[in-house]
What does this fold into?
Amino acid sequence: MDHVNAPSLPRRRSRSLAQEVMNDLSEKIRSGVYRPGDKLPTEPEVMAEQGVSRTVVREAMSRLQAAGLVETRHGIGTFVLPPKPAGLDLMTVVTIRDILAMLELRISIETEAAGLAALRRTPEQLARMHRAIETINENISKGERSVDADFQFHLQIAQATGNKYFEDFYRHLGTATIPRDRLDTPQLSAEPAPNYMFRANREHEYILSAIERKDPEMARASMRMHLSNSSERLKRASEQAEEKSQEGTKGKDPTAES
It folds into this structure.
């Protein structure tokens, strides 16, 4: 079938360009513009259509693969996969309400995972947790994304439980578990983004300290505190952003040009 390339719409600042491109392509897949077995446009075609760089396109394609929507055949192209059986649809985790619901799920699972990790972790797993925290701090200092390192820290805890189902479940959730992978949460906050991020990473250090001391109760408490704080930070940031938006519309002449 012929695929009509619609002109790109202005992108919202609250999401990364890669997420916007992914959302556009995934919607075309879900709506039947691209059907199972169809080959997606090439990287240059997507770059031209979306007005983005090759790096952005490749990240978007990687996210589509992680979501199980496409597969890349080296030297041939990227093809749409048949839909998965009904289940947890991580593509729907896009609004603040969705992310808060995801954090509730994480609290119930990762609190116990942290307790088990404190009892079962290996020196190698501890070293990887330390490395993840150091990478997060380095990324923050450079103004870079730290989503992957954040995910790795929590994944190492899941692996340290010694229960493969914790790890399988966490891998299935992927980086959708990290709020700022879906929304630019630090930019929603009134405080400087680095401060927001460093404070969250200190909470990782508290969790790691308890796991390192083999203190399961403190590990559980620290994980619950971290995820609960993440939820509260997101709520406050959302409220502050909404207040700023409302203040910006007060007194504005509706007939004035934007």
The beta strands are 70-73, 77-80. Residues 133 and 201 are 7 Å apart (CA to CA).
